[in-house]
Amino acid sequence: MNGRTTRRRNRRLGAAVGAGLLSAAILLTGCAADNTDEDPPGNSPEEHGEHGGMEHPADGGPVPEGMTEATDPTYPVGTEVTLTADHMDGMDGATATIAGAYDTYTYSVDYTPTTGGDPITDHKWVVQEELEGAGDERLPDGTEVTLAAAHMDGMDGAAATIASSTEETVYVVDYEADGMTMTNHKWVVESEIEPTS
pTM score, two decimals? Predict the structure, then answer.
C-alpha cells in the first residue's frame, strides 16, 4: 500500500469520525431541547424553598379563632410596607398592605407533609393558635407538635418539630408578586417588614 492510499484512507476515516461526532452532538442538543418545558434544578415547584413545592393559596382565609389583635402595632392595618421575607418567590422586596396584626408566639417548624414527599425544614411561620393543644405558654425549640394550619396541602394534621420561635408582632399581608395577588397571606413577622420608602 503506497503513502497516497494511506493518506486517503486516513482522511476518509477522519471525516467519518467527525461526522459521527457531529451527529452525536446534534442528537444530544435535540434531547436537551426536548426538556425545555422542565424547570432547571432548584426552580421546580417541588424545590420551592422550605415550602417543599407546596404553594400557598391566593387567599389565605381568616386567622384562627382566639387570636389577640395587637393593640399598638408598628404597622397598623392598612399600612403599605415592603416585605423583606423570602418565604416564597417574588416576596422579598414586594410592596404589601397590612391586613392584620397579632400578638402571639410564632414558630418555624420542620414537618413531613401528610400527603407524602420530602420533609419540609424551617417552614416560616405558624402561630401558637395553629398548634393542636399548645396552650398559652411559649413552646421550646425541639418540642414535637401537631399542626392545625392549612396554609398548604399536607400541612394540617402533620407531625412537626419546633425549630425556632419569636414573640414579635406577626402580620397578615396582601401583596402582589410574579403576577399573582396574594390576600391574607400568613404570616410575616415584624423583622421581615420595612416601611415603604
Answer: 0.71
